[in-house]
Amino acid sequence: MAEAADFQGTSASPARRWLRRAGALLTGAPLLAGLLQLPVAAPAQAASSGTVSVSLDSLAPSAPTDGDTLTVSGTVTNNGKQAVTDAHVGLQVGPRLTTRSDIDSVARHSDDPQGSTGSEVGDKYEEKFDKLAPGVAQHFSISVPVDKLGLDDDGVYEFGVALSGETSAQPWPRVLGIQRTFLPWQPSDADTKTKTTFLWPLLSTVHMTAKTGAGDLQTPEFLNDDLAKDLAPGGRLAQMVDLGKDLDVTWVIDPDLLASVDAMAVGNYRLQAADGTSTPGPREHQAVAKQWLAALQKAVAGKEVVALPFADPDLASLAHNGTSVTGSLSHLKDATDVAATTVKTVLHVTPSTDFAWPVDGAVDRSIMKVATSAGADRVIARSDSLQETAGLPYTPSAARPVGGGTTAVVADSRLSTAFEGDLSKAGSATLAVQRFLAQSLEVNSQTDKQRSILVAPQRMPTASQAQAMAAAVKALQGGTWTQSQGLTATAKDKPDPAATTRIPSASAYPSSLRRQDLPRTAFEQIARTQAKLDNFRVILSDQSRVVTPFGRAINRDMSTSWRGHRGAAEDYRDGVEDWLDELADQVKLIDKSETKLSGRSATIPVTVQNNLVQPVGHLVLRLESTMPTRLEIGGKAYYEQPVEISGGHSQSVKFTTSANANGRVAVIAQLYTEDGRKYGEPVTFDVKVTEVTPTVMLVIGGGVLLLVLAGFRMYTQRKRAAARQPEDGGPGTAAEDPDEPGNPGAPEGRLPQESDSGSGAGDPEQPSDPAPDTAPESADPSGTGERVDR
């Protein structure tokens, strides 16, 4: 049984089968029973388990030509529990693959040890290991002249790196681990070369908030400091620029990224804190941002640059959930208009802005309609969305006229998705590069007809993905079957008449992508924020201080980068709206308490406060009486006055009122913009009306006069009494008037001044001064009410 499993595809001879049967009978029934209990498929299971993993870390050159020496290096790791002995790593060259599907099939089973890739190149080109201990990785490196590989016709060959060995449980040589990849073979220039466009996306997530400082520089506030990490040497964006500068690619840039880096480069940016405050950004990051921008300016000089709409709006979400919300499409137009200006200002190049790029190149009819609504007449789609239906035996050119003057530029899905996934390990990156090159060569081999092929990779590749992409593009640039071409030229190339131009319906849109769409509520909130901004901007003397940061923040609300981060997207939208509310509330009416109005007419002041740093105007303050039959404002139910206030000041606006009857009246103060829209919250307060008649005034005046006369009489009486009293104080010197102080008939011992005080028991009662008919006015405050100007 063991001998039969020595090599796959061989069978034991009849003599050997007879000997095994005889041996089994001689061992006796107990041994036979024990053998029958063993799993017959054990050797096959052991082989398919992949006892040893093989990592192909480097294959150079990626696309060899005549005279080259191919160097293959990597590691082998024993994943089993038993040591592997008598092991060696060998190279296998399989058959030439003739279709793109063949390449896909090999890639799906690239590490399956069952089945042979092909014969080994030879023991001269192998690396041996006496022993591979469990869990231990061993490095290998093999170099072989290309002419020893047996490559014949041009094309793509299956290429394998296999480890063979044996274990104590299965002491026969067999393949314990393998890694299959591809070897593109095009030693001389192809008769017809494929024109290849490779997009180099320079995009990032949202970094800037809507908040800016109150100074002239309007210091920006960032969500966090993640952007600085990406810009620093070794960071993702730093590597994208460093790698892309030497590549013949079309740069696809989000202007928001440039604006964010430029704001950081100016310095004094701030970072949002969890408690709602902000802290200064590190000063050293200013130099990092400046260095990155300078490197990018050099990298894109002379290259084609495509600018996406500002903040890379999510076209699919807008098409599926935003078009029914009024004003949503206008944001896409604004984002497109500002894109060219931003790129030209920061990079000093004029970009193309007539390309739209839906996420993953997935399109349907509604997406195409939205994508072209802002002026873009070329939409970057992908072949797994715009699938071929005519059964073409080759991959058609990218350009497809889809009607209405719109061109769909269709990226090849296999090439565009070649660098997705985790490529942080060298083995994964090498496989991705070889598979990409294999597919590219196979496309060129399909027909003698020259075609234009577009590669549109993921929007935000990681650093390791970018490195793999750069390696593949370099191999293409130095290869023999392609030639580089810009995106604009590819879009203008003559389309294949047999290629599909039918845009799929909405039902064909991938459900996995639809689940990540921004919901309708997001666009409703954006519309609400825009309405508040429109209401706020009209009162400002310098609208740009608010319109620009909030306009760009609203663009960021719709960014494609929010896909898969719905909670963070909601928080960002809430932050934009809350900050706008806070700013708008800096211009407001000051609350008033109850106002007391005594008389037929008076002036009521209402105070407007402006805590903004800039003056505000174009405002109207309306004061309205809820009961104009009792209280009129300016002779009618309400009255309006224009308001203009300097920054950081308050202004008191006075309204003339007239009362027609007594009682309490509710009065409403409300600010309006000049176009008649309410601004801010109203202030309601009560006016208590007390109408004073002429008769009451006459009575009050008479009472006051009596008080004055009584006081004068008392003064003259006391003066006469003092003059009549003798100097020694004896009796008989004063006049004999019994009513005057000092009369002998008065009680003994009574001082003259005591006649003004209350009398004791038995004293004759003094006539009192007449009581005033109106209580004296108190100097204390009149309570909670406010006094008004009379």
TrEMBL record:
<feature type="transmembrane region" description="Helical">
    <location>
        <begin position="696"/>
        <end position="715"/>
    </location>
</feature>
<dbReference type="InterPro" id="IPR013783">
    <property type="entry name" value="Ig-like_fold"/>
</dbReference>
<dbReference type="Pfam" id="PF19516">
    <property type="entry name" value="DUF6049"/>
</dbReference>
<keyword id="KW-1133">Transmembrane helix</keyword>
<feature type="region of interest" description="Disordered">
    <location>
        <begin position="721"/>
        <end position="790"/>
    </location>
</feature>
<keyword id="KW-0472">Membrane</keyword>
<keyword id="KW-0812">Transmembrane</keyword>
<feature type="region of interest" description="Disordered">
    <location>
        <begin position="100"/>
        <end position="122"/>
    </location>
</feature>
<dbReference type="InterPro" id="IPR046112">
    <property type="entry name" value="DUF6049"/>
</dbReference>
<feature type="compositionally biased region" description="Basic and acidic residues">
    <location>
        <begin position="100"/>
        <end position="112"/>
    </location>
</feature>
<protein>
    <submittedName>
        <fullName>DUF6049 family protein</fullName>
    </submittedName>
</protein>
<dbReference type="InterPro" id="IPR010916">
    <property type="entry name" value="TonB_box_CS"/>
</dbReference>
